[in-house]
Amino acid sequence: KKLNHGEIMYLAAAIDGEGCLPVSHTKYPNIVIANTNLEWLKRIQKICNTGKIHIHDSYFKRGLRSKPGYVLRFRKWETYSILQQIYPYLIIKRDKASDLLEMFNIELGI
Fold first, then answer.
1. Taking the model in full, what pTM does it have?
2. Residue ranges of the alpha helices (H) in 19-93?
């Protein structure tokens, strides 16, 4: 999905603050945003028109936390599309995003 300027800025701030840019066990880059506020993650999911939300909190399951944690995960090509759009606005995750985009460019032969 092509994001508008406001969505790009919102998503860049969300990923900088609450996101993670790991390379999964299958060697594919992805975007992960974790939070205890399910409605906020649903809002981000709606903005992007993609992504999957899962409950992911072993502390909650063991009774060590009062609220469950949730994870919004974007898969490989969703990650590529999002990173291309938000990269200029990232601050904290900019270097990692650059590395991931380079991985995509190598795979695409760009």
1. 0.86
2. 38-48, 58-61, 76-86
